[in-house]
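During the no-cost extension, the postdoctoral fellow (Dr. R.K.) reprocessed legacy sequence entries with the updated structure-token encoder. One reprocessed record is reproduced below for audit purposes.
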Amino acid sequence: MSTRRLAAAVLTVAAMVALAGTAEAQGGARADQQGRPAGNVPPADQPLIRRIPEPSIAVEGGFGMLGYLGATAGVGPTWNVRVTGTMSPRLAVEGNYIGSVNQRPTLGRSLVMTSLDAGVRYNVLRADEAIVQPFVVAGVGYTGWAGEGGDAFAVAVPLTVGVERLVTRNIKLGARLNFRPAFFDDLTVRGAATQTGGDSWALLAHGGGAF
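Re-encoded structure tokens follow.
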């Protein structure tokens, strides 16, 4: 066999091997594409949930005024401490402590309220949709009153509307209007002709840090 024929044979074999390799690679790619789930869902050998988002935590304090419906007590100062855990751009859970001191009009003595509750918050708008973020909160908790005619235990169902916004990356300010119906409550002063209860409202400004 001459050198030219030998070279031609080697080139022919090399070309056939290259063509066979290309065809095999294309077939494997097609099979791989057919085996993958549709859309953006990763294949079964990769995790479906790569990272579980952690809720952000905010700790805030507030101060304002609180009044009672009816003639239970006059308007007085109120304060609160709140911890909020953000679960999504729309939903959060809250834990609240709120206290107040109000003067009873007929006795000239103080009625001191202490309340602890937990609630679910719904953001009407996401934080990136407006200059302030409006929200509503509904919850349930304990309320007790110390002082003349106080009641050591009642059930409260706080309902809140409010707005807030971030001032810096970790500091936010806001305001809330809270209506707090009470159940199983009796704040009637001994000897009074009419019964009075613990339904109240509160207007608070608040601020704190988000982490």
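Confidence is low (pLDDT under 50) at residues 1-7, 17-25. The two ends are 82 Å apart (CA to CA). The remaining legacy entries will be reprocessed before the final report is submitted.
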